[in-house]
Every structure is written in structure tokens, then in C-alpha cells.
Amino acid sequence: MKPYKFISISIIAAFIIAATSCNGGKKAEAKPEKEEEVLPEDIVELRADQIKLAEISLGKIEMRSLSGTLKVNGQVAVAPQNLATVCMPMGGFVKSTSLVPGNTVRKGQTLAILENPEFVDLQQNYLEVKSKLEYAEAEYKRHNDLYKEDVYSQKNVQQVTSEYKTLKVQLTALRQKLELIGINTGKLTMNNIRRSVAVTSPISGYVKAVNISIGKSVAPSDVLFEIVNSDQLLLELSLFEKDADKVSSGQKIRFYINNESEQHEAVIYQTGNLINADKTYKVYAKVTGKCKNVMPGMYANAIVEGTVNNVTTLPSDAVVSFDDKDYIFVFEKNKSEGGKPFTEYRMVQVRKGVSDEGYTEIILPDSFDQTKAKVVIKGAYNLLSAKKNAGEMACD
Asked: 356 φ, ψ to 5°?
């Protein structure tokens, strides 16, 4: 509210206080036998000139479709499947790389070349075991055939079978290790054993971090590259627990990055089921469309659009707050005192709901008859000021 509005309310309230005060002390002494009227705590009484000065006007409670909005903060993120940390299971020495942060890469593209003598040992062992397995397999078949003809004993067959299965297990294990570092065992021969392997990108995206340089020794646990796919961005929003019932899957979100004026959109796909220690919980939304200059880790200001409901409403200025409670003023009755007309207004406690486009949802007491009530839709703040400062409003 602008400063001049507070000044205006103060002036009006002062006028009402002065005008509604009972006549001076001399008059009271002159008529001691007349008993002053004591108004109920929830009643405010004004004369016609005071009503005009306070600019009070009446209206009806209306049913309107309000969506409401909720302002929250968060950051841009990506789903785990769109963020890749690249390591080399066996480590090695960096032979070459040409990438810098910001480069775009595609899935399967070579990121770096690593060398390691253990690569050679693995390939050698694989080929040796493969050769032994070919011989053991032939022996296994031969012994089984001879066993059926009662030429070999069962013990000999069992021994050959054990050797065959052991070599088969060894070959499978070595094949898995070689494929883990990117060597295709189907094309591996004694003529193409190599000491270097290519580190490839598991996803398409852009390079977020490069943690290697040529000649550097890297361990299996070292992170060589971080790759981010920003085609599908997410919003990770933090909401206070009191707002838990105001969001749900499918709601639309408008958000802004770095205080820019460009608006982006997202849709909530998941709400948190756990309240954090700071009494907040997480809500996740998928960013819709392509957003330029929006990257993971950026801070976001978001507005959650509420669901549209048909609710009882009043203009927002008709609802006033006092002692952490919300009230409206309702026309009570017209009366006459000492030949002068007065109007009484009753304060009614309500609960506020969502607000949208200048209107606020109100939850009324069960006994309230909204069809007949005439509500103060303009000048409610002036009535509240008069009530707080004037105290008893009755006059002779």
C-alpha cells in the first residue's frame, strides 16, 4: 500500500474518532442522568457524514473462479539419466584429448585416449584362455564320446569337464573386463592387441567439466569428464510445509532466471513426500520448450499457478487483518439517536484463501447468510482504523 493511503486512513480515522466522541465534559455534567450506550466489541457505528468521509460502499459476496498463485524459489536441474560422470575403470595415462568445457558431444563420441600396460595384459590373457578353451572344448567332446563307448573312465571325463568349465568361466570374465574398458573382443586377434583405449561419452550433451590433461595419470575413481544433456531440464523448487496443499502434479509454473524478464514455463510432475529439517519440501517440474541461456545450477524465481475453483470471494480490499486474524465488515442496521441517523457495521471473522486478479477467497462462518449480507467492499480499512482507535462509538 502506498504511504499516502496510510496518511489518508489516519486522517479519516482521526476525524471519525473526534466526530464520534460524546459531547464535552460540561454537557455530560449537565445531563448526568442519561446513560451512555455501550456498543458490542464487534460493532462500529458511524453517522452519514462519517460514512461519506470514509468512502464506504457496500456490495455482495460473489462466487468466482480463482486460480491463485504461489511464489517460490529453486534452481534448474537435470534428471540423473541426463547427467553423466565419466571414469575409466582401470585408470591409465592420458594420451590425448581435445575437449574443453562447453563443447557439445554425442553419445559414443571419443572424449580422450588412455594408455595402460594392463590393457595389453588383459588382451593377452584373453587370447591365451580363448586358445586353451578351444583345445579343452575339443577334449571335452572327445572324452564324452569315448566315455559313452566305455573307453574312458568317469573320473577322466569329470577332470576334463572341470578344466573345460574353468576355462570357460575365465574367458567370460576376461571378456567382461575388456568390454568394460571399451575393447571389442569379437574383433580382438593376436595381430591387433593395443595399449590404448578410447574413453567415450555415454550420453549426448555438452561438457560441463574436464578434469584431465595430456600425460596425467588417472585412477579408476577419478572423474575425467562431466557431461550434461540439457534437452530436458527440471526445476527443483523448495516450498514451506504450510503450502503443501497448494501444489499437485499437473500444475503449471512460470519461472524466471537471474531476474531476467523472459518468462519460461514448466509443469509439476512430482511433489515431495518428506519434510526437511528447515520445514521445507521439494517439488519437481519439467521445463517445457527450449529455453535459451538456461543451464543446470541456475537460480530460479517461480510462480505456481493454482487450480481453478469456484469459491466465495470479495474484492481484496474488503478483507482486513487485525491481531493475525482476518475480518470483513457487514452492514448491521440503521438507527436513530437523539434525532440523528446512525449506521452500525459488524466485524465478522473469516479465513482467507487464494487471491487472484484483485479478488480474495473467503471462508465464512457456518452461521453466516451470504445471500442477505451487505458487505463493506470499499472503506474497510477506514472502519478498522476507527474501530481500533475510537473504542466506544456511541454518542448522545
From this structure: -160, 130
Residue count (the chain):
396
Query: Residue 323 has which C-alpha cell?
Result: 491481531
CA–CA distances in Å: residue 297 to residues 206, 257, 300? 14, 11, 9
Strand partners, 342: 47, 335
DSSP conformation class of 188: -
Q: What percentage of the chain has pLDDT greater than the value 70?
A: 86
With 0-12 / 13-18 / 19 or more C-beta atoms within 10 angstroms meaning exposed / middle / buried, residue 289 is exposed
End-to-end CA distance of the chain: 36
What 3-state class would DSSP assign to 271? Answer: strand
151, three cell numbers: 573307453
Q: What string of DSSP letters covers 90-101?
A: T-EEEEE----T
Q: What are phi and psi of 18, to 5 degrees?
A: -65, -40
Domain annotation for the chain: domains and CATH numbers: 3-67+310-390 (2.40.420.20), 74-81+230-298 (2.40.30.170), 82-227 (2.40.50.100)
Query: Residue 235 and residue 77: Cα distance in Å, rounded?
Result: 6
pTM: 0.58
Instruction: Kindly state the percentage of the chain with pLDDT values over 90.
Output: 41
Whether 267 contacts 285, CB under 8 Å: yes
- Closest C-alpha to 152, from 144, 140, 141: 144
Q: By the 8 A CB rule, do 256 and 299 touch?
A: no
Q: Has residue 333 got a pLDDT over 70?
A: yes
Euclidean distance between CA atoms 393 and 105, whole angstroms: 78
Residue 13 has pLDDT above 70, yes or no: no
User: What pLDDT does 367 receive?
Assistant: 87
Report residue 273: phi and psi, to 5°: -115, 15
Are 307 and 251 a contacting pair, CB within 8 Å? yes
Distance CA 285, CA 271 (A): 9
Instruction: Region of 131 please: left (phi>0), alpha (psi -120 to 50) or beta.
Output: alpha
| Cα-trace Rg, the chain | 40
Provide the 10 A C-beta neighbour count for residue 359.
Answer: 19
> For residue 91, how many other CB atoms are within 10 A of its CB?
16
